[in-house]
Write a structure and sequence with these properties.
This protein has 128 residues and is an alpha+beta fold. The protein is built from 3 helices and 8 strands.
């Protein structure tokens, strides 16, 4: 399961994620991390069975948590299989097989890079 963690500015300098991992003794995979002036954001992956324990612990520290259930939608009528989106995907959820672009949605971290790169607007983030 993929989860978005958003840190308000006042929490950016604190080791909240590492402390939460140590306290809960749970394994997570950090897929994406981004820190800007007013917010820090991580996209992590965690086993479904561990989600509640981890989410409860990190919310107590003031981190905003959102489960990522959305996915990328590829409109085959608009797509010309140019591949402009493929090289930008940081987790290789967009691939070319037999000269055709396809989506492996379970890998997607919803960064939106592919959506912005598509010259034919064939990609969009679909909501669950």
């Amino acid at each position: 399961m993929k989860i978005s963690l958003k840190y308000p500015r006042n929490l950016l300098g604190k080791p909240i994620l590492s402390n939460t991992i140590l306290k809960t003794k749970l394994n997570i995979n950090i897929i994406q991390a981004k820190v800007e002036d007013s917010v820090g954001e991580y996209t992590i992956e965690i086993d479904d069975k561990d989600k509640d324990k981890f989410v409860d612990a990190i919310r107590k520290e003031g981190v905003l948590v959102e489960e990522l259930k959305d996915n990328i939608n590829l409109d085959r009528e608009k797509c010309i299989d140019c591949g402009a989106c493929v090289s930008l995907c940081p987790v290789t959820c967009l691939v070319v097989k037999n000269f055709e672009v396809s989506v492996e949605g379970d890998k997607c971290i919803l960064c939106g890079k592919c959506v912005k790169a598509c010259p034919f607007k064939a990609l969009s983030i679909k909501k669950s």
